[in-house]
Amino acid sequence: WLSVMLVGYHVGSAIAVVPYEALGPELSDSPDQRLKVSFGVGVADLVGTFLLLWLPIAGFRLCKLFGVNNSICPLRHDLIRRCARGETCSLFTPRGPGHEFRVNSTFVHLLAGYESELMRVDCDNYPHLSTASFMEAEAVQAFCQCTDLCMQACENADRSFGFSFAGVVLALLFLVAQHVLCRVVREQPGEGRGGTLVPAFFRLSRNPVWGALWPAWALDAFGHALLLTMAPYFVMYVVAPEYAYPEASSAGLDCKEGSRAVTANLLYEPMCNTMAVLGGCVFAGIAMALVVLPAWFWAAKLFGKAVVWRFWSLISGVCALLFLVVGKFQLVVALVVFGISGISLGGRFLTDAVLYDAIAYDEFLTGSQHQSSYTMFRSMLPKLMVVPAASLSLFLVNIAGHQPPVDGRLQYQPLSVRMTIKLTMSIGASALFLAAFFRKRRLPISTGDASEALSKAAREARGGGENISDPISQTPYTPPRYTEEEYRKGVNSLEHFMKIELIEAVAADPEKGIAALYRSTAFEVSRDIVIWLLAGGSSCASVGLLRGYRWNWVPVLLSAIWAISTAAVCVSAARWRAAAALTRTRPEPSLVARVLAHRRALQSMQRAPGAKP
Q: What mean pLDDT comes out for the span 166-185?
């Protein structure tokens, strides 16, 4: 069910978010104004995230206030009485509601009649008290394990309600925001054609600004996804607050191996609670991001957004390296390092600002607007990076010897696991950011003047101009002008094929060229379907591995491969249908010649001396 809900969430989010993000470039043609738009979106994103992080906490408080989980969270004296009667909560965590308390008759005769004495037992120290107690040590141990287990089950139930409450509130806010957006915002009348996905993808690949942007963007997204997926493991197992003891903790904490991390414990200590510490680290990062956000904006105005975007990757890499200095039980150091890493988080809006240049250059190349194509991939790419990052995290942690939780209680991990997490989160993420830093050197638009020239060229192209100077190669260029009928009669089908040699073959001999296209695309469809079936079968066959901890990364990786193969089948099927359409309705030779001339013009611009590779 979790997988189904996640897929549904991401699909619904993409349907709503892609049109929303496409509105940004339409608000202005000015690079300076577009930078302000992306900055405003970044501010709203961080402020909203900061405020909404309180929702699970609010849900947790409401759960306590209205007694939603009273069946598993009784008052302390009721809990002690039930454990003294031999009832246990061991079935609640794996099976859920309806299995709150079940009688365990093993120690009933040992504990019955001692409720008043058990009220005074300090279960944090029961190994030391049991020998002096008039009750049997084994019975005291059973009683303390029962209370500890039930308090942990109560904690998990309240936490589950808190996150469910946050999900419902977010869904309602999302619906209201989308309604207001559709009612208030009026988009500009578009000149572009909707087209299909495959031509849109190939059009992106012919855009040199996008071609230089997306690999660096993918590296940045992979690095941040690695930090995102590793952050909970880092707090749980590297900082390990639940296992802090006075001699090793700088704050003098004595968490009794997680007993005092449970909110139902009378001696509850928030700094022993992993979720509380993780929440504090996240708040520290977001708060720092809000503080430095104006600094990133003014740096982009002074030095150019492309230059600052490049050095943003370098700074992100330096921030990632700081995780090396955090050791076990060092809660204050962890908070400081997470806070410093928020410097990188504050510069995320720069990616959108640079993306607007890629959208403007596409408008210059085509003479029409295709913002949604770019914002679709902008929304998709970070999500795609989360899958390999999560698979890599699970794989490395399990290979290193991860010890799974017992009855919902985190276990202290061996040194190999702690070092794997620390090195992956620091060295691994930093290497990705450094690779992105060097890859961004290929971005052809690197100054404010170049961005302004690009916006001017886009306006001329949209207005029907001819022989417009390309802002990158400085060569004259005229955007193509196709009618709707020409699109239907062949242009849209030909746009499914990226290689110029294929268009040349169709122009030289239409019958043989189109027949060759049909045969090659039919083979591609057959090949991709076979791969899809193998990947899907392997993914379904490996579902049983999810029950274990050592190999649970395998079905995750196979599912990702299955998703990629599904996309490949869709692309190859679309190309096959386009080839079939060309077979049924052969385009006029003059129309093919115009498409070929346009492709050659694009190729000559990309090979011009002024164009960057």
A: 82
**Mutual orientation of helices 305-321 and 448-462 as an angle, nearest 10°?**
130
The pair phi, psi for residue 88, each rounded to 5°, is: -135, 160
Distance of CA 66 to the CA centre of its chain: 34
Kindly report the number of other CB atoms within 10 A of residue 469's CB atom.
14
Q: Name the DSSP letter for residue 441.
A: G
- Cβ-contact 313, 434 below 8 angstroms: yes
Which residue's entry shows tokens 């249908």?
577
Closest CA to 217 of 485, 440, 511, 11: 440
Number of other residues whose CB lies within 10 A of the CB of residue 312 = 27
DSSP string computed for 9-37: HHHHHHHHHHHHHHTGGGG-S-HHHHHHH
Q: CA-CA distance, 249 to 277, in Å (whole number)?
A: 14
- Could you read off the pLDDT of 416-449 as tens digits, one per residue? 889 999 999 999 999 999 999 999 888 887 666 7
Give CA–CA dist 100/20, Å, rounded: 45
How do residues 108-152 score in pLDDT, each as one tens digit? 666 666 666 666 666 766 544 444 445 566 667 777 778 888 888
pTM of the model: 0.80
Task: Name the residue among 9, 19, 10, 6 with its Cα closest to residue 372.
Answer: 19
Percent of the chain residues topping a pLDDT of 90: 18
Q: How confident is the model at residue 569 (pLDDT cuts 50, 70, 90)?
A: very high
The residues, any chain, with a CB within 8 Å of residue 179's CB and separated by 6 or more, are none
Residues 53-80, mean pLDDT to the nearest whole number: 84
Burial 334-348 (b: 16+ CB within 10 A, else e): bbbbbbbbbbbbbbb
Q: What is the DSSP string of 541-592?
A: HTGGGGGSSSSTHHHHHHHHHHHHHHHHHHHHHHHHHHHHHHHHSPPPHHHH
Can you give the three-state secondary structure of 384-401, one letter per residue? HHHHHHHHHHHHHHHHCC
Percent of the chain residues topping a pLDDT of 70: 87
pLDDT band per the 50, 70, 90 thresholds, residue 304: confident
Interatomic CA distance for residues 584 and 321, integer angstroms:
59
Tell me the C-alpha distance between 601 and 611, whole Å.
Answer: 13
- pLDDT score of 135: 55
Residue 482 CB neighbour total at 10 angstroms: 20
Three-state SS at 469:
strand
Stated as kind and residue range, the H or E segment containing 186 is none
Averaged pLDDT score across all residues of the chain: 82
Q: Could you tell me if 449 and 351 are in contact, meaning their C-beta atoms sit under 8 angstroms apart?
A: no
Give the tokens for residue 214: 């997306």
43, 293 Cβ separation under 8 angstroms: yes
E strands present in 34-113? 87-88, 102-103
Buried b (16+ CB within 10 A) or exposed e, 182-212: eeeeeeeeeebeeeeebbbbbbbebbbbbbb
- Report DSSP letters for 399-439, one per residue: HTTPPPPBTTBPPPPPHHHHHHHHHIIIIIHHHHHHHHHHH
